[in-house]
């Protein structure tokens, strides 16, 4: 019989405001209000131990709680509760793991447990880096590991590794295999007490195609290089985690078929630099701090990938300056330039509640749409002021775009049926080709550098912000654009790439930026429109900008007449038809903290209006540009 159990790890609390969960985490904290919070909280306490639907229904009937089924469905839909079945149970020994995993928003322990049981790991080296990583991995609910190390335990190992004095003189691999297999019958630990001569030897003693992860914890640097160079031809889906420590620093990186060439080149350069030294005096300084740091962060890298929490591929620790980083290579590069904006976009979980006093206009609703909603007169820049004084958009242009609006609905979000990474690379290649032909060699090299060195973040995690952004920070350009497989989203990536180009040209003005980006985005898509992918991107670009022009013309006029104090002029121009649609457009397009925020996009189109109109006419009249959805 299926049973429902509340996730107690979310920390539920009752106070005068209502029922709060994620009580101790201010970023995630939420509140539930009901007709009777006390009764609802008692129900939550009741199902904090597993209960069947029949038991819950009977309890609610006795307590006079209405809509028990709706309450249960709400908890399950939002993953605030787990369903226990004959196939899926949570044993007492795994409750802590279940509680921990269950606290990640929109995450079910059931999914985690299934994958954790099936993932297979191979350890190459069981010293300071590897020995406690095994312990941490198994205690996070993973089961399958093959251990490779020919070393025996020495006395000095005990202080920093997962061994005792009773283990001195014994095989590291066999000790850890026996220790953990004896701890639980669920563990499947194999061991090989062998010295690995080269990649071929490794591939002979274990089946590398069977592993999901290979942990490179061996001291043999040349062997590590050889493995990275060859393993992806044997198992293209395997993930390597290479960890090590130096003077007061610890580093760990996830290596895949995607990034292996760049990392391999860096490691080879490091090795060449090391070989060029005339002499070295050094002794191993690894302690339990390095050991635990590697263990914790390695397992977190695995967990994050399993749950799709983030692209957690890099760890860097500095024990002197107390800098501890774990995340993507992109985040690390950006953090070095000391700006937190990217972090806020990648982990979009905290609502900004402190901006209400900065609003210039009330939230637009059905009730207040027909009145002036200005709160305070905001400051305008020169271009915005000219827009208010000189008049709004050319009405003949607006009429032309409205006339062609019927083509918009079926084309705006056409999916391209290809792998996202393939499309991304295709876009990078074509943009670079266009820039190479049309701009200086320095601009081309700067953009190429930005792409190759991962200053562009496109990974879509569970908590991502959908914004696209290009930031110049400390003479570096960072692009944030998370790809979701839609044509509009791919076009936004191209848009941001041209912002980067304009920054490389030394330009900062936002209006000139948007004008430049619009012009070259359109020209580039036209240049490559015989390409199957770019043909679809081209059509989507045109129709999206028809949509942008119409919607922003409407919302900007509403802002303009609000700022002028004569909202009736808005209705004189736009009329009273389709009020519900108008309210939706205005409310979704107005930035309540920055007046006329979208004017820069209208400005860009107006500055290229004749060319744009020609493209619209070309598509609407040319049947060769039909799109297959």
TrEMBL record:
Residue stretches making up the THIF-type NAD/FAD binding fold domain: 115-300
Taxonomic superkingdom: Bacteria
SUPFAM superfamilies (UniProt xref): Activating enzymes of the ubiquitin-like proteins
GO molecular function, one term: ubiquitin-like modifier activating enzyme activity
Protein name: Thiamine biosynthesis protein ThiF
């Amino acid at each position: 019989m299926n049973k429902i159990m509340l996730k107690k790890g979310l920390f539920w609390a009752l106070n005068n405001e209502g029922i709060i969960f994620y009580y101790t985490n201010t970023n995630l904290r939420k509140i539930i209000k009901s007709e009777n919070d006390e009764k609802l909280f008692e129900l939550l306490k009741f199902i904090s131990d597993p209960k069947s639907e029949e038991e819950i229904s009977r309890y609610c009937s006795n307590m006079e709680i209405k809509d028990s089924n709706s309450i249960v469905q709400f908890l399950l839909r939002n993953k605030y509760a787990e369903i226990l079945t004959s196939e899926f149970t949570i044993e007492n020994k795994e409750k802590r793991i279940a509680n921990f995993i269950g606290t990640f928003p929109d995450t079910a322990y059931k999914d985690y447990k299934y994958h954790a049981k099936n993932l297979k790991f191979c350890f190459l080296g069981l010293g300071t880096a590897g020995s406690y990583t095994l312990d941490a991995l198994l205690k996070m609910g993973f089961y399958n590991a093959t251990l490779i190390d020919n070393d025996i335990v020495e006395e000095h190992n005990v202080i920093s590794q997962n061994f005792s004095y009773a283990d001195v003189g014994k095989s590291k691999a066999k000790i850890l295999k026996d220790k953990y297999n004896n701890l639980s019958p669920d563990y499947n630990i194999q061991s090989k007490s062998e010295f690995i001569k080269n990649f071929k030897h490794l591939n002979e003693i274990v089946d590398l195609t069977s592993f999901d992860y290979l942990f490179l914890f061996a001291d043999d640097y040349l062997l590590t290089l050889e493995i990275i160079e060859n393993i992806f031809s044997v198992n293209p889906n395997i993930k390597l985690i290479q960890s090590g420590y130096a003077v007061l620093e610890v580093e760990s990186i996830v290596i895949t078929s995607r990034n292996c060439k760049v990392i391999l080149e860096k490691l080879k350069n490091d090795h060449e630099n090391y070989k060029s030294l005339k002499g070295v005096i050094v002794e191993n300084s690894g302690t339990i701090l390095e050991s635990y740091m590697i263990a914790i962060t390695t397992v977190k890298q695995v967990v994050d990938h399993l749950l799709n929490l983030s692209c957690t591929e890099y760890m860097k620790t500095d024990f002197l300056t107390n800098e501890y980083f774990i995340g993507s290579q992109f985040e690390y590069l950006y953090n070095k330039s000391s700006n937190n904006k990217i972090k806020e976009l990648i982990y979009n979980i905290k609502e900004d509640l402190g901006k209400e006093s900065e609003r210039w206009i009330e939230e637009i609703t059905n009730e207040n749409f027909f009145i002036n909603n200005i709160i305070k007169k905001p400051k305008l820049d020169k271009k915005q002021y000219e827009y208010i004084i000189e008049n709004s958009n050319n009405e003949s242009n607006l009429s032309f775009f409205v006339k062609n609006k019927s083509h918009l609905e079926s084309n705006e979000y056409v999916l391209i049926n290809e792998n996202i990474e393939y499309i991304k690379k295709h876009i990078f290649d074509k943009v670079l080709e266009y820039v190479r032909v049309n701009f200086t060699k320095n601009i081309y090299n700067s953009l190429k550098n930005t792409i190759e060195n991962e200053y562009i973040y496109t990974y879509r995690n569970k908590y991502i912000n959908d914004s696209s952004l290009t930031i110049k920070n400390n003479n570096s350009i960072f692009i944030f654009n998370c790809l979701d497989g839609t044509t509009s989203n791919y076009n936004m990536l191209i848009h941001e790439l041209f912002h980067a180009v304009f920054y490389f040209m030394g330009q900062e003005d936002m209006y000139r930026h948007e004008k430049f980006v619009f012009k070259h985005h359109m020209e580039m898509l036209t240049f490559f429109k015989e390409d199957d992918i770019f043909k679809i991107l081209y059509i989507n670009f045109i129709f999206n900008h028809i949509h942008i022009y119409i919607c922003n013309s409407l919302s900007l006029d509403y802002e303009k007449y609000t700022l002028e104090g004569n909202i009736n002029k808005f209705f004189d121009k736009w009329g009273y038809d389709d009020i519900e649609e108008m309210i939706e457009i205005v409310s979704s397009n107005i930035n309540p903290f920055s007046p006329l925020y979208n004017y820069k996009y209208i400005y860009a189109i107006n500055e290229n209006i004749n060319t744009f109109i020609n493209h619209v006419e070309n598509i609407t009249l040319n049947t060769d540009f039909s799109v297959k959805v």
